[in-house]
Amino acid sequence: MKGLFCFSLVLRITLFILLCMCYFMNKSQGSPISGAIHSFSITTKVDELRRDMSPSTQPQPFIPLLAPSPLGPFTYNSLPKLSGLCSLNFSASQDIMATTATDCWTSFAPYLANVVCCPQFDAMLMTLIGQSSKYSGVLALNTTHARHCLSDVQNVLVSEGANSDLKNICSIYPANLTEASCPTVFVDELESIVDSSRLLTACRKIDPVNECCDQVCQNAIDYAARKIALNDMSNSDGNHSLPRQTARVNDCKKIVLRWLASKLDPSTANVVFRGLSNCNLNKVCPLVFPNVTSVVKECKVISNQTTCCKAIKSYVSYLQDQSFITNLQALKCAASLGKELQKANVSSNVYNLCHISLKDFSLQVGSQESGCLLPSLPSDAVFDKTSGIGFICDLNDNIVAPWPSTLNQLPSSCNRSTELPSLPTAISSQNGLFISNLVLPHLLTLLLHKSLL
């Protein structure tokens, strides 16, 4: 055991020294790219909650996270290897492909997958197919082309800095680019079945705040998808089972979304798709909760507050390793965990007792171990030659996680009677301030820790 400990210590020290040498060498060279690797920016931005539920106090400043890991190469391959067998028109959607590459950056993709990377990846694929349908007249790829196109798309994104395992991270496969079980794939056929003018009017421009509650565009998409899904049911084999019908409607929703992408310019389509995806994202907690036995043991009957708080904080620390989440997702996560504890007869408000905040449910960053809550509205990572890769964090340090009530309901931003926690008073109003090197020691510690797990 002593020899193993010594080896581990030597390895940590060696890696730390090498990383520091690489960092200061890069810094001395004055390269705008290498210098950007170790920087992050502070930006003030207010998250747009429902207009009738605006925070009662000023918001805390938002800060983007630090740039890519110094362990990963910060290089681009200017000419990705393509199959030559994909008919999608990449040039028509260059900007959103660049956005996708940044949102799915090598080091961050697994941690931004749920909220930023995968929604953008999915929106980009729908836009690519939709734009190409303007010339092909078809809203889906066959299995062979789907396989080549998905591979080519990933190669292009990787050449611009994206993670090389995006297909697995986002669970997107060639079948996702086909028509699946939807019976309608031709543009002309779809337009002969649905009221395309009504659909386009409902979804040409959505309000990202109110759409999630009013569901104007979502209802129009659902109605159109049901019409084309059920169009040939009378001629089918008679199997009208609900699971089969539901799966077909869901597959047809993708066809409808691709049709919308063909009628909108790529950037507008991307905004619409990201807004729609966030409506679903913010409804649920994406975290996986391990067994709560350890917390119940110490907090069911609180004889020692210190041991109870130690147990709940240790439990929450496991959740923090999973991913970044939005502030509304954090509300859902806090309520879900609270319900689990209440079911196990933990009646005391351990969140208030142990100072568990909403930010404690998201990944922790920075030298102060501050929890990073992403905005509830769609946001993207940003690449800058000077400041590197950054994305917006909402550091709501003072918001104690709300202990669920006895009404057996999760908090909803669409319920006017629901009182969401107000944001804390801002401690700074600085805009665009770039700070370098401040979080480097924490990053190195984090990387060393993860490499030795």
Automatic annotation (TrEMBL):
One of its GO terms (cellular component) is plasma membrane. Keywords: Signal. InterPro entries: At1g61900-like (IPR040336), At1g61900_C (IPR059003), SPARK (IPR043891). Residues 283-355 form the At1g61900-like C-terminal domain. Residues 83-240 form the SPARK domain. It holds the Pfam family At1g61900. Residues 1-30 form the signal peptide. Coiled coil: none annotated. This is SPARK domain-containing protein. It comes from Lupinus luteus (European yellow lupine).
